[in-house]
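Bench notes, afternoon.
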Amino acid sequence: MSYKGKYQPSFPQKYKGDPTNIIYRSLWERKFMVYCDINEKILEWGSEEMFVWYRSPVDSKPHRYFPDFYIKVQESTGQIKKYLIEIKPKRQTAPPQKPKRQTKQYLYEAYEYAKNQAKWKAAEEWCADRGYEFKVLTENELGI
């Protein structure tokens, strides 16, 4: 089940973008928004405010990928670090198991997996060029 809604930050000055129009598409994203909003170590954050160009393996055309989050963090060492974060269920981070009979569900999952891999590779390269780090967070990292 998908949960969508608008998030109202407690500290709108930390939000990079329009703090009156923050949309979450899952309860996991909302949980991460609350974390970013109230965590003092997160100096700045945004939700789908930045994009990365990637080439789709399906149509070989360039597309824009909007990672779920941008965060600027003061690490425990005092160093300031920037991240692009994607929130995904763990099952979507591994290739789908090929069934005995090819189903529409399998084809959809294979397409989504290939598309995500292309997006994440482009995001890693984009981050490497700018001194950012790219991370995919699943329910394991979110403690769900």
